[in-house]
Amino acid sequence: MDKKEIRSSNILFLLKCLLFSYILTGGFLLLLALFLYKFQLSEKIVSIAIIVIYVIAVFFAGFMTGKRMGSRKFLWGLAVGLAYFAVMALISLAVNHEFKDLGTHFFTTLSICAAGGMLGGMLS
């Protein structure tokens, strides 16, 4: 295989990992909604659970990407974490037509997604 085929194969795999992470996020958010309905959780617990869901989803995507790529695993994990955040930010922009809480939550979520993906890549 030449470099162009390998590069396109890697990008396709990265997109598959992103899709997996969003499916995982959706499943966990549905489970969180069920817990919220059944147990009437506080806002603080829900916020913490959402952060944990982001970290778990991006960690597994970074882990799978790192396993596949073999070298520079932490960079591939970082890339998948940043891509996860970018898609999430674009969807948020499309729905809200603005970035709400740009100062605090935007950069916090960016850091969480990048760190989770990088950790997954490093541990793969």
UniProtKB/TrEMBL annotation:
The chain crosses the membrane at residues 12-39, 45-63, 75-96, 102-123. It comes from the Bacteria. The keyword ATP-binding does not apply. InterPro entries: DUF3792_TM. Keywords: Membrane, Transmembrane, Transmembrane helix. NCBIfam families: TIGR04086_membr (TIGR04086). This is TIGR04086 family membrane protein. It comes from Eisenbergiella massiliensis.
